[in-house]
Write a structure and sequence with these properties.
Layout lengths: L2 E6 L5 H13 L6 E5 L5 H9 L3 E4 L36 E4 L3 E3 L16 E5 L41 E8 L3 H12 L10 H9 L4 E4 L5 E2 L2 H4 L11 E3 L19 H11 L4
Length: 277
Amino acid sequence: MPAWITLFTQPSYLPGVRTLRKSLENTRTRYPLVVMVTENIDEHSRRLLTDEGCLVRQVKPVAPRSGVPGNYANARFSEVWTKLAAWRITEFGRLAFVDADMLAMKNIDEVFDFPLPDGHIAACHACRCNPHRIATYPRDWVPANCYYSYLPEHNGAPLPRQFSPYFNSGFMLLAPNDSTATELENKVAAIRDLAAYQFPEQDLLNEYFTGRWLPLPYIYNALKTLSIQHASLWNIFEVKNLHYILSKPWQDNNGKDDNNPYNELHQLWWKTYRQIG
């Protein structure tokens, strides 16, 4: 049986996990949500998620060896290496990883029927425009290196010859496999310099699955920044899974910040959150 799976390592993300689960329920998905937790998630939170229908699984944290200095685009990324533990959840034949800051807008059960060759994953292209000019992002994250800049809805220009495909790991279709998990964990353990891993597990997964990932339409991982940076592509009525990268809805003023350019999208999250009993 397939399942959705997410990672919950920071207590402050509990509203995100609960709202993700509720949004999947609202779409009448046929599949359960597995929540990977680490030891710092308390029993109350685990019980709450279990009572709401989640399958809670404690996993061993994945991280580079101690003493390797971090170079992350955001400090909270230090724990996302543990996302790689999804490959250890072999009780399911196929998993769709969904970040805890996502909101299912439509039923997306069809992803489990997508063909996936052995040793491959499926994911959506990342937007590498860095529209907010975040200084800690890679220097080559500019519109000229963004896949979405070359779509017909944008300008239709051909991709440069040197273009290097790169996916966002917030939504991934994968087949759990202990051998793959071991290889990924060994790669993390072998890291001596994190300069190339500003987006930790995402950068490593792009390395590992080079030539072995199938691109999905953006609607399965609709980064909220696309709504402004690639407005000609964006169609909220087509979006199936909304990704709240950067600031999180539960961290704002109940979605009532008129100065937030993503306020309307955040309101969608709050609408679902308020449905939780």
